[in-house]
Amino acid sequence: MSEPAQEGATRNPIRRLYDWVLGWADTPYGVPALALIAFAESSFFPLPPDILLIALALAKPHLAFYFALWCTAASVIGGIAGYMIGYGLWATFEPILINKVFSQANFDAVTSRYHEWGEVAVFAAAFTPIPYKVFTIAAGVAKLDLLKFIGASLLGRGGRFFLVALVIRLTGQRAKDLIDRYFNLATILGTLLLIGGFLVIKLLR
Q1: What percentage of the chain's residues is helix, strand, coil (to nearest 5)?
Q2: Cα torsion angle, 60, 61, 62, 64, sign
Q3: Euclidean distance between CA atoms 61 and 82, whole angstroms
Q4: What is the total count of domains within the chain?
Q5: Rg, C-alpha atoms of the chain
Q6: Host domain of residue 35
């Protein structure tokens, strides 16, 4: 890479944020940072906690599931915080979040689907690369049942993060390449199969 290109990459704010997240893996505060990032990503932080989870688990594969547990718990708690923003504080947060964290069109599209899909939509967002934060807040705005929201979030977030941990435990250093290439596609296909099964059950009733 040429010198100007390197400088451009360095100045890119998302790249700087990515490097900042990754940098926590080399400190004694990796787990607290992972929990904090997982919590924040569920309502406003732009980068997924997978970045730090993968780095920590690759450094200590025997603790991969421990890191996944922390990541899941913090992400679901963050999701509940996002839900509460939508449920009780949307009038306050709407001007801050709309067109800054997500667009009005995307948010309207998500909320319009909640009465039909509910917790299935939450699971899909929690398990796949779809921005989970949009769905946590939209769930609160749509007044989705809180227990169903928590259950779907646990299944989706836990499924995603523990799957990352499992891949790392099984494949070691090859895990990062496998996750970068195939993980998001695998989660999307898995979710489509689950939704397909849900639709079949719904049609047979």
Answers
A1: 85, 0, 15
A2: positive
A3: 31
A4: 1
A5: 18
A6: 3-204
Q: What's the pTM value of the predicted model, to 2 decimals?
A: 0.78
**Which stretch of DSSP H or E encloses residue 170?**
helix 146-171
Q: Residues 6 or more apart from 63 whose CB is under 8 A from it?
A: 56, 57
pLDDT surpasses 60 at 8: no
The gap between the terminal CA atoms of the chain, to the nearest Å, is: 59
Rounded Cα gap, residues 173 and 180, in angstroms = 12
pLDDT band (50, 70, 90) for residue 197:
low
The amino acid sitting at 79 is G
Amino acid occupying residue 24: W
CB atoms within 10 A of CB 171: 14
Q: Which amino acid does the sequence have at 86?
A: G
On average, the pLDDT of the chain sits at 81
